[in-house]
Amino acid sequence: MTGPAQQPSDPLRASLEQSLAAARQAGDVKKQALVLADLGYILTQSGDPRHAVAFLAEAAGLARGLGDKILEADVLGQQGLTSVQAGDVRPGIEMLKQALAAARAGGDLFAEKTALARLASALPAVGDAVQALACYDQAIALTRHLKDTAGEAEVHWFAAILQAELGARDRALAAGREAIALFKKLGDPNAPMFVSQLEKYQSGGSPPAGDLKALTAPVLAAAGAAPTVDANPGGPSQGPGVLRMAMTAAKSMARYFGSGMKTVSAETLRVRLQTCESCEQFTGARCRLCGCFTTVKARLPHEKCPIGKWPANLVRS
Ligand code: SF4
Q: For a tag site, which of 31, 132, 212, 258 has the least CB within 10 Å?
């Protein structure tokens, strides 16, 4: 799972706003909390963390009132990340720690893994790389226990980025190789790009400055699509930035694929989405276990339901 976590689309936002109005009218507090969390999530992904925080704060209050620890963990985790992104670093990290406590109190290992990975991503902002690496290690152990291969691959890659930022070159390479082995095992079409970026990191070279198109073009071409992914390197194009760029590119491609290019058959897509809609892990827009927007994830042939709910015989285009 290297990308369908984001789909900040206006139609989705409009649909969520309608759902929120309906939930408010019906007095459905849980639905309100779920929709507010999704709205906060897409606003964060759209680069509007200040407005996202308002939605997420309301969602967190509702989740707390309901006593739903798993929902509280999800909302607080997103609120924490969004606050960090908005510049409120220490309050955000406090929320991320509360999210982890809520996930543990709720006894949900998927929620705990997500909370650990989120906390790990934020801790370096206050100079606590040691604790961040410990959180990544715990998250990896949980992904293995849960057989969440996609989650494990992604956490390894983020750990590789952090190791590279710390100058721990051998550990960064080892973590990157672990991630790549899993991306390949999953049949992730982005695997060659991760390989290429790790090689560039290893050689100390850099890709053409700011050129995400150069990274995404081979995968899009193989899919018969035009290379229209936005050029947004999201950081320096050498050292750790080479590794970070691979993840940014993978997510950009997922957004592209999710914007209209069907990569599985209509029947497969229908069954997958129907399964998600009746699933207790579905927020109304996202899968809470992997954080993905299901309308994006369900289109991608290599994607899987983290708990195996999608029918296996429908994964081919
Ligand atoms: S069916 Fe699977 S992918 Fe869909 S919401 Fe449930 S757990 Fe997530």
A: 31
